[in-house]
Design brief:
This protein has 363 residues and is an all-alpha fold. It has one domain (2-355): Na+/H+ antiporter like fold (Up-down Bundle), CATH 1.20.1530.20. The chain contains 16 helices and two strands. Strands 1-2 form a two-stranded antiparallel sheet. α13 (291-302) runs antiparallel to α15 (322-347). The radius of gyration is 20 Å and the shape is globular. The N and C termini lie close together (10 Å).
């Protein structure tokens, strides 16, 4: 088991956390400041951008989301799906946490904190929207950043690639029904047409474009593909930051009136990350899964596809909604919290392997 991890870690997918990713929380804070300031000083241009909609889809944001997520989706190799059986236990644990635990635990945490404990400090008219945003955030597992987290934990690259490809396939079919179910249970009106349109616009079409681009670039060899991804990466991050500036330009007044909102929304997100990563890590240990699989399994189980959540929240509830703000809080805390989980996973390797079954072999 240990030997396998040492061998596969040498080929770990992804690279070390880059400068912009490492300081993503700082950039988000800067976007908060810039967005709020511009929204208060020159509101007219942002109001014009907010009105550029077709079928409840904001066209500038739709374009930014595509620029943001298509390079991420190009990293996914769906041909790896045939390798699922090689890591059946680890994949089973991650699927269980991602699809049977995380969305439902977040719905429970959102009800407890937003509608009960924190309700007196939050605007009453936005409570449902905050709950909806948190549900959207938890209903889709992360696609891109998990390659980095896997690399930092010396994770098994084939497991990570297979798991992400499988999650993206499931997301096409499961995202809308899970979100619709949980919104309905939470007594929030479900705009089904807009929800399904969001899935088509922000999952189906980007995946198709990304895979076509991936196939075309790989015809020129792996080096050609890697060069293209390096060139596209700054565009992806810039699109994310511009989207955040737009969001906070619309959210500025609400934040200035109640500056504790972001901190209060962060509480259920933090609990959800720690709970789900710990659950996935513990289940893998109980099932005797190799540490090089358990690490990325825990990280995939805890992280969120916040780009999709932001896009869906804007489409469903609008720029100025509490749902959009709740998803952005997920962006704000993603990197520092996941780096903390990486640190725990790496630091607990001896403990993990001392209690893991010798029959693991990474499956």
């Amino acid at each position: 088991m240990t030997a396998q991890c040492e061998i596969t870690a040498k080929a770990a997918a992804g690279a070390e956390l880059g400068f912009f990713e490492r300081w993503l929380t700082l950039w988000v804070f800067l976007c908060i400041g810039v967005g709020i300031a511009l929204g208060q000083w020159i509101p007219t241009p942002f109001q014009m951008l907010g009105r550029m909609e077709v079928a409840q889809v904001n066209l500038p944001v739709g374009l930014l989301i595509w620029v943001m997520i298509i390079p991420m989706l190009m990293k996914i190799d769906f041909s790896a799906l045939h390798e699922v059986r090689r890591h059946a236990r680890g994949i089973g644990v991650t699927l269980f946490v991602n699809w049977a635990v995380k969305p439902f635990s977040m719905a429970l945490l959102a009800w407890l904190f937003i509608r009960q404990l924190f309700a007196p400090w939050l605007p009453a008219e936005q409570l449902d929207a905050y709950v909806a945003g948190l549900i959207l955030l938890a209903a889709a597992p992360c696609t891109a950043m998990v390659f980095v987290w896997s690399h930092l934990t010396k994770g098994e690259p084939l497991f990570t690639l297979t798991q992400v490809a499988l999650n993206d396939t499931i997301m096409v079919f499961a995202f809308a029904p899970i979100v619709g179910l949980l919104l309905g249970i939470s007594a929030i009106a479900v705009p089904w047409a807009t929800l399904f349109l969001s899935v088509v616009l922000y999952i189906v079409i980007p995946v198709a474009i990304a895979q076509a681009a991936r196939a075309w670039l790989l015809r020129g060899g792996q080096a050609n593909f890697d060069r293209a991804m390096a060139r596209l990466h700054p565009w992806s991050l810039s699109a994310l930051l511009l989207t955040l500036v737009l969001l906070f330009a619309f959210q500025g007044r609400a934040i200035l009136d109640q500056p504790l909102i972001i901190a209060l929304l962060a509480v259920p997100i933090l609990i959800q990350v720690f709970f789900n990563s710990a659950l996935a890590y513990w289940l893998n240990r109980k099932l005797g899964v190799a540490h090089c699989v358990a690490g990325p399994s825990a990280l995939i189980g805890a992280s969120n596809f916040f780009e999709l959540a932001v896009a869906a929240a804007i489409s469903l509830f609008g720029f100025e909604s509490g749902a959009a703000l709740a998803t952005v809080v997920g962006v704000l805390i993603e990197v520092p919290v996941m780096l903390l989980v990486v640190w725990v996973v790496n630091g607990s390797k001896v403990w993990y392997e001392a209690g893991s079954s010798p029959l693991a072999a990474g499956r």
